[in-house]
Amino acid sequence: MERKKITIVGVGLIGGSLALQLHEKKISSKLIGVETNEFHAQKALELELVDEILPLDEAILDSDVVILAIPVDSMVTLLPQVLDKIDHQIVVDLGSTKSQLVDAVKNHPKRGRYVAAHPMWGTEYSGPQAAIRGAFEKVAVAICNAKESDTDAVEWARNMFGKIGMRLLEMDAYAHDLHAAYVSHISHITSFALANTVLEKEKEEGAIFDLASAGFESTVRLAKSNPAMWVPIFKQNRENVLDVLNEHISQLRKFKSCLEKENYDYLLELIEEANKIKGIIK
Amino acid sequence: MERKKITIVGVGLIGGSLALQLHEKKISSKLIGVETNEFHAQKALELELVDEILPLDEAILDSDVVILAIPVDSMVTLLPQVLDKIDHQIVVDLGSTKSQLVDAVKNHPKRGRYVAAHPMWGTEYSGPQAAIRGAFEKVAVAICNAKESDTDAVEWARNMFGKIGMRLLEMDAYAHDLHAAYVSHISHITSFALANTVLEKEKEEGAIFDLASAGFESTVRLAKSNPAMWVPIFKQNRENVLDVLNEHISQLRKFKSCLEKENYDYLLELIEEANKIKGIIK
């Protein structure tokens, strides 16, 4: 795989972690950061996530590949602008929702240069300081609507994700957004809501967190996630997230009803049903 | 701390992990297991969690300390029987609920020999094979209604938990059960319900789990937990769990309402509120 000059737009948790991998796996010959947040730009240089920070136009001119790693609302605005500016470059986005983005550039004359991707990796932290070495390895990445991308562009993206150890999946953008609502977005909502449930109680009972266990931390850690990233995701994937949230509330009501009616046989059944998740996640 | 002959009733995840620590930290001179499940008894010997398996009566006669690590419904039945049988022995339980247990032996002539404890540790696995070396370290343990225990008994329990690296908390059994509902029991219910939400969908959409991320695994891992342990916990702590579950459902409804009304400012506020959990869990 020939090394390329790569621009990363948005050098935060995702963009920064990818930059580390692109360098480590010798995929990039040069890494340029585009970053509107001055503090993040400075940090990205200090942490040597990128070789230099440039304005977008200059960065594009000097690159073979442009990777977008910004919140999905900014992405929908920026992607068509980037496609307007490019010539031969490949453009890849790493956003958590795909339908609106793919729709936004459906008829763009440079559509073929763009590859829609979602690596299923993240942490509850944000910013360049949160970037991690070895991220993305053994994790799934969804490439959406690959047929709308030029062969060379999608091949490069496949090779790049493969070289950093990701498991490639190809799917339609609508299917992606539905599935992501189930296996990612709803987890964040339950975690935010769980944090608020307990924080509400803590106002009365200061000592409550002294008892917090690893199980609690595990279910609530996503509640630390960055609202600037998540509000746009929920907004763009509103209908799917609402469907899953309704289903989740109705599942919780079954537990509530068991307790109210003291129907412990059915409670046992519900838990045994939930245990089937053992067959699916390790 | 003088080494003692210790019986562990229930050599599963919790009892087995404690046995490993009691041996490792030189707290026990001999470890006796009492285990009604033949397969678990055999495994506990094979894994050298205990030195021998004995019937309860013989085990008590040969012990200085009896530790109960069985589901909380069996505990309520067995604890008074154990107190009937003991003489000088110290009895400690490790159950996840405390009120019913403490109430069940409130007027027992041997009440003083008993120490009510709940180490805030566990995993989603069960049985002696799930026992882990180094468990309990740096984790909180609640000792409840210590004033109802004899000084020598509670002192021994404090020293034992301290020696295996636990952080001691003392509280009333009712306060414990309320707090445990918030920082442990509700996490399990949300996780069970989340698993059922996604498993329900998976019947239609086989590929959904290909996309599962670490975030999803983190929020759903508790859904693997053993129903034989958890149904009795929810049963005994029914009222507190129902209160928290109602609060949690109403918090989820706020997210639902934001999405339905497309009120993204309030959604941002809800997430920023949830982010305050950062100040509480590391």
CATH topology tier name of the largest domain in chain A: Rossmann fold
Any low-confidence stretches of chain A, pLDDT <50, length ≥5?
none
Order of helices and strands of chain A: EHEHEHEHEHEEHEHHHHH
Structural class by sheet pairing and helices of chain A: alpha/beta
Number of helices in the DSSP assignment of chain A: 11
Question: So what's the CATH class of the largest domain in chain A?
Answer: Alpha Beta
Write a structural description.
- Two copies of one chain form a homodimer.
- Chain A has about 280 residues and is α/β, with parallel strands linked by helices.
- Chain A has two domains: about 5-170, NAD(P)-binding Rossmann-like Domain (Rossmann fold), CATH 3.40.50.720; about 175-280, 6-phosphogluconate dehydrogenase C-terminal like domain (6-phosphogluconate dehydrogenase C-terminal fold, Orthogonal Bundle), CATH 1.10.3660.
- Helix content of chain A is about 50%, strand content about 15%.
- The first copy, chain A, has an eight-stranded mixed β-sheet, with helices on both faces.
- The longest helix of chain A is centred in the middle third of the chain and has 30 residues, at about 175-200.
- The radius of gyration of chain A is 21 Å and the shape is globular.
- The two termini of chain A are about 35 Å apart.
- In chain A, about 55% of the residues are buried.
- The model of chain A has no long low-confidence stretch (mean pLDDT about 95).
- At the A-B interface, α7, α8, α9, α10 and α11 of A face α7, α8, α9, α10 and α11 of B.
